[in-house]
Amino acid sequence: MLPRSRIAQEWQAFWLALGFLTRIPMLVRIDYSQRLMNQSSVYFPLVGLLLGLGYCAAYFLFSLVASPLAAIILVVILHLFITGAFHEDGLADSVDALGGGYTVEKRLEIMKDSRIGTYGTVALVMALLLKVALLAEAELTWLALLVAPAVSRLTPLILMACLPYVTDPDKSKSKPVADGFSRSRLLAAAGFVLLLAAGLSLWQPLLIPAAITAVLLVAVFWGSYLRSQLGGYTGDTLGAAVVFSELALLLFL
Questions:
Q1: pLDDT (0 to 100) of residue 173
Q2: What is residue 165's three-state secondary structure?
Q3: Which residues neighbour 46 within 8 Å (Cβ) at sequence distance 6 or greater?
Q4: What does the DSSP 8-state code read for residue 233?
Q5: For a Cys staple, 93 with which of 72, 210, 212, 236, CB 3.0–4.6 Å?
Q6: Per-residue pLDDT for 221 more than 90?
Q7: In sequence order, which residues have a C-beta less than 8 Å from that of residue 118 and are 6 or more positions away?
Q8: Residue 143: pLDDT over 80
Q9: Residue 28 gets which letter from DSSP?
Q10: Per-residue pLDDT, 29
Q11: Which DSSP letter does residue 12 get?
Q12: In angstroms, how far is the first alpha carbon of the chain from the final one?
């Protein structure tokens, strides 16, 4: 049995993950530290599941007064509001930087720029359109809304465990999302995602292989590309990984 101090620490780590990934207020006092930030990453898939439950409930409510397509669009708008377009912002910044920079230093400089460029705008618009289209085509839209946020948030944990964090040479004090993310916590997060997929396989038998394939495909190919172009990951590229994984899983579903 875990000691009370450890339970309190994990409780804080969960709320830190929730506050980091969403606009939902943290209802507990957080004794912030880099170590606690490291620990909180294991709860990213759980936060995704909570978001998925909210999206699923919202979809059923919106469907009472709107067409299925309109309900999906409203859920996507809700998602952007609750998360503050956190991962979508990372996608736009990553594509702008990797598309417009010719050196690592220039790519990092572009990534830090708050303005969005042509590459980022196109990537963002197309990603959102594709997400709506795939959700509309899904055999079980509610299932896709429920599981995709949880599964997709496993990918950045793999990237954090396998790649170094890339620091801006002009801003060496910048900190990664999680420095030294442990493999044991990665295994715990992966086990949670697999159990979730197994539990929902009653409605979609191919959910487990679809989830594994989506996460590994993005982790391997996006991770390899980041290593070659940046030498590692940044916070923005982790956000892009979530979007890519979600689209890949929706495509398989």
A1: 40
A2: strand
A3: 14, 17, 150, 192
A4: B
A5: 236
A6: yes
A7: none
A8: yes
A9: S
A10: 85
A11: H
A12: 39
Calculate helix-pair angle for 68-83, 86-100, nearest 10 degrees: 80
Cβ proximity of 154 and 241 under 8 Å: no
Contact (Cβ atoms closer than 8 angstroms) between residue 176 and residue 165:
yes
Total residue length of the chain: 253
65: confidence class by pLDDT, cuts 50, 70, 90: very high
Q: Are 180 and 36 in contact (CB under 8 A)?
A: no
> How far from 2 is each of 6, 8, 9, 17, 31, CA to CA, in Å?
6, 10, 11, 20, 19
One-character DSSP codes across 101-114: -SSHHHHHHHHH-S
Give the whole-angstrom CA distance, residue 108 versus residue 19. 26
Please, which pLDDT band fits residue 2 given cuts at 50, 70 and 90? low
Which run of H or E residues covers position 148?
A: helix 141-152
Residue 181 parent element (H or E): none
Which pair of tokens denotes residue 65? 């007064």
52 residue type, one letter = G
Q: Is 111 exposed, middle or buried (0-12, 13-18, 19+ CB in 10 A)?
A: buried
DSSP letters, 33-82, are -HHHHHHHGGGHHHHHHHHHHHHHHHHHHHHTTS-HHHHHHHHHHHHHHH
Tokens of 120: 């980022």
pLDDT digits (tens, 9 = 90+) for 76-116: 999 999 999 999 999 999 999 999 888 899 999 989 888 89
- Please tell me whether residue 87 adopts helix, strand or coil conformation: helix
Q: Which tokens belong to 115?
A: 């303005």
Cβ neighbours of residue 6 under 8 Å, at least 6 residues apart?
Answer: none
